């Protein structure tokens, strides 16, 4: 642990020495900061293209991931509701509303902060958001009801087949006043509200529809309080249980509605409820389940950039998170691998790498705007330091690591070949439920390349076996990619590639 932190800290101080010790000589370009010769623009293009590989429903004429076909065209019909569309969250064929909504929020936040730098990729990023919001509008079309899942995960996991061929039950799961789900509802409100900002100028009527729906969905979340996995445990656990409770989503949803509406009522809600909703907690994990850190960073913007004085405490809360990430600084509590990768847990660790990197770059932007910095126990941390840490993480994903492997499928000369993903792993021919398990256990590379997918990533010692059966390390997910979109846009722009 101390060894890995020392070398990671050293890498920030001595990038040339570290680069030459971990990768081929000559891989880095010349210049004052010896920037890595990564093509961030290419990575940005691919990180967005990935979402086309996750689409459910009737695919459009401009679909670019050509090995995918229409799927789930009768979703919702069992309960007489149109639930066609949306995304498969990872490598299986279930549509889980909780991670889908978080994915949407993070894609929207990526565009809100860095969309101005995306140039030609902005339209593709907005298309990825709209594919999700069109579905979320369908899922929230009935008052006081949210359809939060399509598919029976247990039955789905007993088969290994492409979404185009699936013959497992498309069971529809919902939350309502008698079976509440404040977490999934408030995250859905956050998704709709953040997307309303994205489309405000380009499609005002769609933006207004999203915002109206966000407000009504949030009211439902707040009025009928409860965690959705309490009543739906057999359906959503252990896949997407609400481990952190629903309080963080209520604060997160209110923060996005405050940003989208500028309605003082939401600011009042945050001030009155912030403490009880866990705003002052020191939990430093940010992902599909836990939004505390994201809410702190977002609310700190209102203080730093918009001068909303009543939210000053969120700057301190946000600083605490940042300090936890700084190697060698007082209050640092984050583990890094020997090769320098932020490491939270063995299952799908890359989601925390991409989400933390995005927050570092976003907070650096806010600090720069307001001429502020972070103080960690007497150590001053500048915005440029935050950017260097985020860049180091993204560069690790793209190949600056001990294995010299890109963890983005289709980027670079070496990347995972056997990802845990049915559509990618099974040949485009109809096979029966259990016949696909031959593909799962095969050592052959996936026949269909899911370009842009970020896999779960290496273990705590930078090892990656590239085995299809190893879902913890080899499975991609929409919520891994979504925050990376914003980071790649920033890095491509700052490196003169956009």
From TrEMBL:
Kindly give the Pfam families that the UniProt entry links to this protein: Glyco_hydro_9
Record field: catalytic activity = Endohydrolysis of (1->4)-beta-D-glucosidic linkages in cellulose, lichenin and cereal beta-D-glucans
Q: What class of enzyme is it?
A: hydrolase
Species: Asparagus officinalis
Molecular-function GO terms, alphabetical: cellulase activity
- The protein's name in its UniProt record: Endoglucanase
GO biological process annotation, one example: cellulose catabolic process
Q: Which residues form the Glycoside hydrolase family domain?
A: 40-487
Q: Tell me which family the UniProt entry assigns to this protein.
A: Belongs to the glycosyl hydrolase 9 (cellulase E) family.
Q: Which residues form the signal peptide?
A: 1-19
Q: Where is the active site?
A: 420, 466, 475
PROSITE patterns for this protein: GH9_2, GH9_3
Keyword line: Carbohydrate metabolism, Cellulose degradation, Glycosidase, Hydrolase, Polysaccharide degradation, Signal
Q: What is its EC number?
A: 3.2.1.4
């Amino acid at each position: 642990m101390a060894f890995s932190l020392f070398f990671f800290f050293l890498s920030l101080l001595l990038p040339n020495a570290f680069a030459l010790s971990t990768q081929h000589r000559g891989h880095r370009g010349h210049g004052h900061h010896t920037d890595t010769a990564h093509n961030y623009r290419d990575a940005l293009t691919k990180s967005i293209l990935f979402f086309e590989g996750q689409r459910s429903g009737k695919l459009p004429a401009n679909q670019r991931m050509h090995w995918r076909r229409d799927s789930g065209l009768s979703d919702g019909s069992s309960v007489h509701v149109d639930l066609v569309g949306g995304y498969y969250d990872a490598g299986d064929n279930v549509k889980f509303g909780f991670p889908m909504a978080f994915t949407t929020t993070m894609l929207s936040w990526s565009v809100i902060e860095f969309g101005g730098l995306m140039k030609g990729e902005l339209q593709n990023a907005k298309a990825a958001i709209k594919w999700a919001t069109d579905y979320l509008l369908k899922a929230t079309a009935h008052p006081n009801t949210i359809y939060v899942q399509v598919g029976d995960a247990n039955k789905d996991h007993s088969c290994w087949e492409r979404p185009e061929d699936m013959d497992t039950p498309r069971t529809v799961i919902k939350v309502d006043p008698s079976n509440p789900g404040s977490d999934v509802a408030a995250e859905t409100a956050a998704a709709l509200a953040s997307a309303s900002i994205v489309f405000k100028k380009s499609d005002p009527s769609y933006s207004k529809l999203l915002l109206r729906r966000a407000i009504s969905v949030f009211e439902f979340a707040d009025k009928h309080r409860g965690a959705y996995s309490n009543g739906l445990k057999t359906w959503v656990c252990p896949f997407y249980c609400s481990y952190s409770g629903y309080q963080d989503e209520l604060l997160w949803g209110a923060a996005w509605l405050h940003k989208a509406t500028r309605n003082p009522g939401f600011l009042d809600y945050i001030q009155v409820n912030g403490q009880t909703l866990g705003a002052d907690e020191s939990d430093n994990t940010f992902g599909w389940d836990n939004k505390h850190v994201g809410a702190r960073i977002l609310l700190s913007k209102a203080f730093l950039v918009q001068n909303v004085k009543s939210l000053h405490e969120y700057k301190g809360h946000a600083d605490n998170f940042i300090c936890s990430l700084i190697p060698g600084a007082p209050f640092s509590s984050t583990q890094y691998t020997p090769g320098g990768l932020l490491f939270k847990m063995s299952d799908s660790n890359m989601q925390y790498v991409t989400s933390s990197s995005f927050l570092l770059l976003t907070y650096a932007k806010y600090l720069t705007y307001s001429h502020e910095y972070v103080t960690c126990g007497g150590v001053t941390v500048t915005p440029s330091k935050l950017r260097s840490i985020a860049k180091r993480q993204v560069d690790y994903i793209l190949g600056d690591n001990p294995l010299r492997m890109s963890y983005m499928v289709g980027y670079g000369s070496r990347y995972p070949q056997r990802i845990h993903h049915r559509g990618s792993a099974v040949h485009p021919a109809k096979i029966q439920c259990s016949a696909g398990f031959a593909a799962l256990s095969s050592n052959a590379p996936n026949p269909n390349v899911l370009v842009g997918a970020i896999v779960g990533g290496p273990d705590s010692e930078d090892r990656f076996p590239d085995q299809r059966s190893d879902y913890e390390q080899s499975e991609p997910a929409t919520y891994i990619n979504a925050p990376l979109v914003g980071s790649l846009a920033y890095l491509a722009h700052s490196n003169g590639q956009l």
